[in-house]
């Protein structure tokens, strides 16, 4: 907007003419769209992506910023608005692509921003325009979807409100967005190089946790905070002062809590304040009260809190790692719930609450089970499916590399994006053999380390019949370490799915479907599969395009933990040439 | 080659057929080329570029390797051979381009490998084929020419020998290639982010110097060699054991010494052994003897040494920084001249020679002046020029950024490469106003800090008349620091130039040309401009294409210290589509 504004004011006279012209355009546009689009607007953003030194947790490192910020600017829109983001890549040698997480991209599958799946990457010096409609209210995210750039800091919030005059089925006075993240001091390049090394080098636990881009690393844990390799760590840097949520006593706040961690499952809690969960991934939840909210990478929740505690002091909001033991490696993330008019930086007089035990799986499973669609907002699921795909998640050693697999296939993205290859019938672009719909249910022992035989690196797609109903059973198993099973948050692009159920142990394809919740299942786009457990999803393949479905842990996706679905490609018109920069180059 | 070989052996029967076919092709090819190409061969390389952890100086960091190595494989060819490099980019999110430094690319300007000038970059997942003829014998280099990737380790040697049966005008028994480099522990991304920061953050002096990819950082200077940010430094790592040049007593060695430093000017010396300089940048030098060789980034020399010292011990070969004061920051690089049959790792019994003083400008200027074309190999320069461009090199503050400028223009590369924009007449691709041919000779004080007025960031080109003779005077000046003037090695793509002279102070356009050496000037592709001095070059604009001419210091080029020449574009046929991937994308 700034650009057009500058143009308009550059000369008052010329500006007036442009403004008149704009007014005319708006008028024509309005007339052409009176009925369905009366309230829809265009939300236009101009973003520049580049490298900058930042100290989100007091430790200075190069991050990728949008318009100088990480997290980037929040996109605020109303339901049915069109969002246009003109993204200029000002990185030096690195391409980029941004995914609009939770936005289904109905009719615009090329705007999903998933490199290798829906578009070629955006080169340094190029400006790419993302244009899509936000068709549902709710809390969404955006982030890089190329290599491991997300954890370099390229992420932010999308907040879609109801159309003017409509209101949520719950009351609140104010609305705040908070993204949780984990933070690593090694660059994404270093992490990726380690993950591809033989011997394998794991990324390790994060150095800190960020609440809305701010965390605190204990600089004194470095023997010398400024070595000659240029380490700068300064706990008095205002960039890493704790995030402050200021509240007015007596008021109710909607906190939109989301997680874009690279690795960690988190718990979030506010000292002395219960939270009422009302939204999950853009869908209304039958309200339930928690002391702590478990949240997995890629999930968004809205919780309501009431500022009804002693107003003469501030309170801690904290986040800590669960599901992995980071007790001795990663301190909790801290923010301040500031009761106005106390000083926002005044530390609460208490010790920050420590959060639940990292290995309390039961509580996490209970929260998963508690999330149901809100009465009056239930979207009934189809009562049966046309196809069931059981996806066994295993960790494997493939030719010396540690990889993650689904049904013995460890995923790699092709150079030519699927959407283009499928639409233009470039069969050489990827493996035309689809991956398997299941595994050896009878003989595979999910409680043992994988035998690591016949695992292959492949890039075939699951082709789904258009409008068919598909069930996905995510089956967890033992990792390469004995008696260990990790938690994986799976995220589906282009659709929401109904969460039909969670279970422990091996999914029983004969009996477990009988226990599905077909009454009031929540719809989501990201869901955890718990240790040694399974999660059952159902979705309708009703969105023409190619869509990634993958573990949202950055390193797990890099290590092959994902698949791609394709449906209704024949229904698509011509693809925009702007997504095809990497294709016709011979 | 491995790939074709694998194909051939995959089935013996099928293999035989392919081999017969190949033989037939070779026969046809030979018949078609009997006269001019009788001895020329194709040298084919398959390279894969990726990130790997390496410890060239004992400090572990992510580098860019070619086929697992840094420096990459040496290209060995004979004069008139065709070199084909199939380059696969296996980086994660980063593009790449490789420049063949010193190869003039006559008839193949699109193969020069200069991103933004001669080609679009090569995307991750893509394979790009460089194909060019090495038309002159000599010592050349290759390295990344995109962003600051060169200093991430992407570089190597090209050695072109005389046609079979021909011999050099000097005798030697063996031939060795040694690349000198400086090494930084911060990544190229971090360095670039610092250089673009306000306030400016300089890259500083290198942590170590590498001789043929091996150096030694003093790990104990880190307070703790393995902090939780993952620093690993290990002086017993064989990757950083000193480079060994093994010699047989009594034999004469041709050492091809080249420099690809990111920043440093160097001196190279071998304890107890004189060096006779015989080649510079592919041209025969009238031999002269040095105790130490001064060498600037982008230069190559051949020196002869005779293994005529006490053969019962080994000797140090060392390199140290000159022109900048790195006495307290960068230890000398060490290698071992190993007299066979002594153990190659046996340390010499002496203290390594310390090399000349860093600030001894006179000795460096003297070496520059000593380099003349060898008798019998003199290529006479045109006795006059059609155009003279005087290039004032200044350091400036442009809108808060520290930049380098030529005649008040600080350079930035366009998104669409010049070669394509010029050939296809895409006038919007770059500033159509050419940069100035001179500066305010009368009033500009080269001994003072620049006033920093009216400096602009631009990307116009110097259009040269085809086959015209062009004189370039590089005029050095004071930097932004009082009483400081740096040394800049300028490198010209696509041509060799005659080095007509060097001088101190401000170039006098009336009188200094009278002192030009028009008798036996050396031809080179890289030449230093000394502190507060000038260097005069002459070249013929006889190679259709667009050619960069720039300071070979990686950070200086990044900061704008370069220009582009274009000539004879109208003589070019259609450009290969493989270089145009970033262009037709709207």
Automatic annotation (TrEMBL), chains A, B:
<keyword id="KW-0964">Secreted</keyword>
<keyword id="KW-1015">Disulfide bond</keyword>
<keyword id="KW-0186">Copper</keyword>
<feature type="domain" description="Plastocyanin-like">
    <location>
        <begin position="177"/>
        <end position="341"/>
    </location>
</feature>
<dbReference type="Pfam" id="PF00394">
    <property type="entry name" value="Cu-oxidase"/>
</dbReference>
<dbReference type="InterPro" id="IPR017760">
    <property type="entry name" value="L-ascorbate_oxidase_pln"/>
</dbReference>
<keyword id="KW-0325">Glycoprotein</keyword>
<dbReference type="InterPro" id="IPR034259">
    <property type="entry name" value="CuRO_1_AAO"/>
</dbReference>
<dbReference type="GO" id="GO:0008447">
    <property type="term" value="F:L-ascorbate oxidase activity"/>
</dbReference>
<dbReference type="InterPro" id="IPR045087">
    <property type="entry name" value="Cu-oxidase_fam"/>
</dbReference>
<dbReference type="GO" id="GO:0016491">
    <property type="term" value="F:oxidoreductase activity"/>
</dbReference>
<dbReference type="InterPro" id="IPR011706">
    <property type="entry name" value="Cu-oxidase_C"/>
</dbReference>
<dbReference type="Pfam" id="PF07731">
    <property type="entry name" value="Cu-oxidase_2"/>
</dbReference>
<dbReference type="InterPro" id="IPR001117">
    <property type="entry name" value="Cu-oxidase_2nd"/>
</dbReference>
<keyword id="KW-0479">Metal-binding</keyword>
<dbReference type="InterPro" id="IPR002355">
    <property type="entry name" value="Cu_oxidase_Cu_BS"/>
</dbReference>
<dbReference type="InterPro" id="IPR033138">
    <property type="entry name" value="Cu_oxidase_CS"/>
</dbReference>
<dbReference type="GO" id="GO:0005576">
    <property type="term" value="C:extracellular region"/>
</dbReference>
<keyword id="KW-0560">Oxidoreductase</keyword>
<dbReference type="InterPro" id="IPR034267">
    <property type="entry name" value="CuRO_3_AAO"/>
</dbReference>
<protein>
    <recommendedName>
        <fullName>L-ascorbate oxidase</fullName>
        <ecNumber>1.10.3.3</ecNumber>
    </recommendedName>
</protein>
<dbReference type="GO" id="GO:0005507">
    <property type="term" value="F:copper ion binding"/>
</dbReference>
<keyword id="KW-0677">Repeat</keyword>
<feature type="domain" description="Plastocyanin-like">
    <location>
        <begin position="443"/>
        <end position="568"/>
    </location>
</feature>
<dbReference type="InterPro" id="IPR011707">
    <property type="entry name" value="Cu-oxidase-like_N"/>
</dbReference>
<comment type="similarity">
    <text>Belongs to the multicopper oxidase family.</text>
</comment>
<dbReference type="Pfam" id="PF07732">
    <property type="entry name" value="Cu-oxidase_3"/>
</dbReference>
<dbReference type="InterPro" id="IPR008972">
    <property type="entry name" value="Cupredoxin"/>
</dbReference>
<comment type="subunit">
    <text>Dimer.</text>
</comment>
<feature type="domain" description="Plastocyanin-like">
    <location>
        <begin position="49"/>
        <end position="161"/>
    </location>
</feature>
